[in-house]
Structures are given as structure tokens and as C-alpha cells.
Amino acid sequence: MQTLYDAMWRELGLDMEAHAGLLDFLGKAYRDIFLPQPNRPKAMGYFDFVVSEIHGLRVKELLEAKAAGKKVIATFCVFVPEEVVLAAGGVAIGLCGGAEVGFDKAEKHLPQNTCALIKSFFGFKLARLCPYIEVADLVVGETTCDGKKKAYEVFGELAPVHVMELPQCKGPADRSLWRSELGKFVGILEDLTGRQITAENLRGGIATVNAKRAALNRLAALRAADPAPISGLDALLINQISFYDDPARFTSSVNALCDELDERVAAGTGVAPKGTTRLIVSGSPMAIPNWKVPLAAETSGAVIVGEESCVGSRNSRDLVDGSPEDLGGLLDSLAARTLKIECACFSPNPERLDTVQSMARVLKADGVIHYNLLFCTPYAAESFQAKKALEKSGIPLLRLETDYSQDFGQVKNRVEAFVEMVGDRE
Ligand code: SF4
Ligand code: SF4
Fold first, then answer.
1. Whose alpha carbon is nearest atom 5 of ligand 1?
2. Residue 424 pLDDT class (50, 70, 90 cuts)
């Protein structure tokens, strides 16, 4: 079927037939998973629209921005600061990698036992299925886990890549390394865009991204209500969209949704009856269209009320202090915020366990699903500590390892058994 955007996709060099198949698959999955959910907030209509235009309108906007002289910067990780991209007059987009696409091609460049997220971003590029990668002027990576940092070396042969060196610890020398990496990033974006980054435009970038994070935090806080005013599936989707939608439009749409949720909370209405088993998901990030775990939980009689994840609290919880007057001070603030992120790539990383426990308390969770992608060693290793710490506080934890394969039945069986066990304790 011909669409409005065929000429645009052809020009970007996409594999038209495979791309049409991907959009059909995505559209059907979305219609089957999201639309039948009971009592969805009306304001989810905006996010439904964004997904329906996933490779359409937003890509067109990016091309228009490029035609107006802006640069598009693609990222894979919450350590790469969108604030600096905005200060340089650019547009930041998070590249997703949530589907088993082009893995056969990716495995010609990467070991088979690489996590699905990495194989997916390679696969999307190699199979010519991602318009965002094609639109990007620069892809910015980071030396987080071993899989990613080695993958960027190879990815650099396929697209222009800059890699930021993220330290593995959080001591004074590590902080100063990261601060200098931010300074280097400023220079790279200035060269690319021809625009000087000043205290004023960086402060503007900080304000825009802080507003987005504040809206996401407002949404996260509303989920403490019982009954839960929004499903975990919808909340995850919103967090996924936060990485590629226009930030100001996204922020106002999330705030409009939160206004509606405020009314629900006041009226005591929600998406599941009061007293439904409440779970938190913690661990590896879930990129679009990876909806497997919340789908399994929410079709097993539970509701997900929080995500301790980069597609969740790790991305939004802390804001950047925009009060310093000079550029150096603002970059110090940015560096300080990013180094609060509790990625399992850091060693040691005890703060993450404290965060999961405090989220469980605040959101009144009955249990935690520790989700990790197969071959994601950092989160798999931390899952043992997490289980010990959580169970000490009386909160059961399910260690769940999966990938993007068709194992929904097995995931669902394990999650269902966990929900039943947690429910019996209440
Ligand atoms: S889990 Fe770590 S490496 Fe992955 S996106 Fe989050 S911060 Fe980046
Ligand atoms: S999910 Fe784990 S292994 Fe995969 S890129 Fe993120 S940190 Fe690395």
C-alpha cells in the first residue's frame, strides 16, 4: 500500500518492501496490545498518534529542520546530554533498538552473544529499516558496557560516530574525565553546527529538558495512587516516545495527560481495581517496540507502577541545576547530573539498589521484576545483589532474562506465577 511518505523513505534509501512489512507488524502489535486496554486516559490519543506516525511525521519534521540548517544528533544512551544538542541549535533523537530486525546481518559484524539492543540498532541500519539513522548527521555513542563500546567501533564504518568516554567509577578523577568529555562534546557540536554554545543557549537547553523531565516525574508520581490511574504499558510507551518526539510538544502532552490523571486520582478511578497487585520493573532498558514484560504482567492480573530503567526513572529523576551564570558552571551541573545515573556499567553501584527500594516504598509496590536482556552482563550481575537487598526488605523479586525472540509464552508463564505468588502474600 502506498503511503504519504513513500518518496521520503525511498530518498532515505530504505528497503521499501521490508520497511512496509515492519510498519505493518508494528501497527498490528500496537493495535492488539495498546488499544484494547480498559479505561485508558483520553489524553493517550496524542501518543497513539505519535506511534501511528512513527516513521512518518517526525522524520518529515527532522528533514525540515535539516533543510533549515539544523543538525540531527542521534544517541543511544541517557549519558549523552540533549541539553548541549539543543544549545547548538540541533535536534536530539534517541535511536531505538527494541525489535529483532536484521540480526542475521548484525551477526556478521558482532558476536552472536551480544545483547539484543545492540544487535537491533546494527540490524536496523544494515537492513535499511530505520529512517532516523539515515537522517542523523552524527551518532553519539559512549563507553558504557563492553558490548556497546566495541559495537561503536564497527558502527563507525557505517555512519559518522563520536564516542564519549564514560568512566566506570564515580571518584574525583572519573568526574574530571567526564567533565572534560562534555567540554569536548561542546567543541564537536560547535564544529558540526557552526554555532557557538554559550551560557545563554545552554541554559535554554537545560530549561527545555528539565521541563520534559519534570513532566515525566509528575507522571511517575501519579502512579503511586491506588487504583493506578494509568497502565504500565502506556507509561512505558510515553517514556519511549520521550526520546524522539519534539521536547516542548511532548512536555505539554504529558502535562495534559497528568491533568487528566489528577482528576482520576481525585475521583478514585483507575485502569485496574484498587488493591490490584502492583509491580515495579527494574533493569535493562526497553526500547520501542519492546513491550513484552509489562504486557505479560498486565495480562496476568498485575499493574506496573514504575520503571527503574533508562526508559524510566534513570532518565528523568534528576534535573540539571541551571543557576550557574557561566558556561563552565553549567557544564559542571550537567556533569554532576549525569553522574547521578545509576547505570550498572558503574562499579560499584550501590545507589541503584537504594533507588529500587525507595521506589518500591513510594509506589507501594508488592514486588519487583528484575528484567535483563540476555547477554547484558552488568544488569544480570546486579540482579543477585538486587534480589538479596529487596528480599531483606520483604519485597519479592523475580529475575527475568529474555531477549527479542518469540518467547512471550515462557515470559508470561513466569510472570504469571510471580504475580500469583505475590498476590498470595498480600
Ligand atoms: S543502561 Fe546504561 S548504557 Fe544502557 S542506556 Fe542506560 S545508562 Fe546507557
Ligand atoms: S542492555 Fe546491557 S548489554 Fe545491552 S547495551 Fe545496555 S548495558 Fe549494554
1. 77
2. confident
